[in-house]
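Q: Convert this sequence to structure tokens.
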Amino acid sequence: MTPAPVRILLIDDDEDEYILHRDLLAENSRELYELDWTADYEAGLSDLNEGRHDAYLIDYRLGEKTGLELLRRMQEQGIDRAMIILTGQTDASVDQSAMESGASDYLVKGETSAAELTRTIRYAMERCRILSRLRVQAEILRNVHDAVFYVTSQGVIRDWNEGAVRTFGVPREAALGSLITEICPHPNGHPFFRSIIPAIQKQGMAEEVIHCLTDEGRDVYVRAKVTPMNRQGEEGYVFCASDITKEKRLEAELVRISENEQRRIGQDIHDDLCSQLSGIGCLTKVLEHRLREEHAEEAEMIAGITEMVSQAGTKAREIAKGLVPAVLETQGLASALRELSARRRELFGVNCIASVTDDPRLDRLPDAISIQIYRIAQEAMTNAIRHSDAEIIEFSLKWVEGALELSVRDDGKGMSREPVEAGLGLMTMRRRAEMIDAEFSIQASPGGGTHIRCRVPFVS
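A:
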């Protein structure tokens, strides 16, 4: 099947140029070309607007007007056409002006061969197709709901779409050329240099929840995927960030409700169930004494019931303590963690070794951070006891380089799966860490134990 001819329009006020270019195109036997001609500026402009031809050869001089004016009209309207400027002499300034005005290429009349002409037309059409595709993609990126922006390796913002404007409330003009740490300040230090770049260097990309505090004092949370990109020889990174601020607020409210409900249930268990079990234990003890002399066998059964009730009361109190870490509220995080370690040691016979700093800064921690650190330590120790067959669990809470770090390490059997694919407990700990802008990591291997770290940066 013969391909359709390439339709070309020559816009030139000299009919001889039409004959010359028609003959040049006819010399090429490999492709078919159909050349039309107009000497009228307005007719050429109309054809360009409608795109009736595949490529345009435009004379630099068109009477009182110039071909550059046609190019600029197309550029102003955002219309992509394969446009080639023709001029009577070699002039670098004309060449540069033509390219800046949107020309695909530039040819000198009388110095162009048939092969050069057809090659230039093909390249111009291909360049036009690429630019058109890029323009569409750029328009999509500019208007996509998510924030998409480009940051250099030094943290300078070079591109900023409409989604970023909506998400962070910063106009494009203000963002371009600014540092990401200034436009999206993080309450505890932006993770761009601290964790995002190292993750990309190690894994080729990074995914992270980023907490930003806007100039208006508004908290913004985004879930960002960051990938490296070389842009015109400049090393940098593309951020694709979804606004999850509403989700984080809802999550925080659910956690608050959950903590209050746990506190209520724990208090009810302690005040009501434990009291009732104690009362039942006292009554069965009295009944045992009354039956001891004449009904020894029944008294022995009652004694067994008394022991079971006592054990149930002890278990209920332990559950209540887990649900309501009262020592966390009365004596602070350090004491609560030490008590947690001692309780696990007594209940399960595992050697729990606690190393907790007595730094007075712990007393100034916000309740939201203290509670989440306590819950992460609680879940990490429970996981180690239930699933790892560990004999020793070591955990510490200390200040390391301006950050508060919780570390829980065991000598158990480790994990055969990747930590990111592991169970609900690990996922819960990770989400708790996200809620307090903490870095969370798991190191585990089969037979090598598990090491869980939660690092809250720049807590003061």
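The chain has 15 helices and 17 strands.
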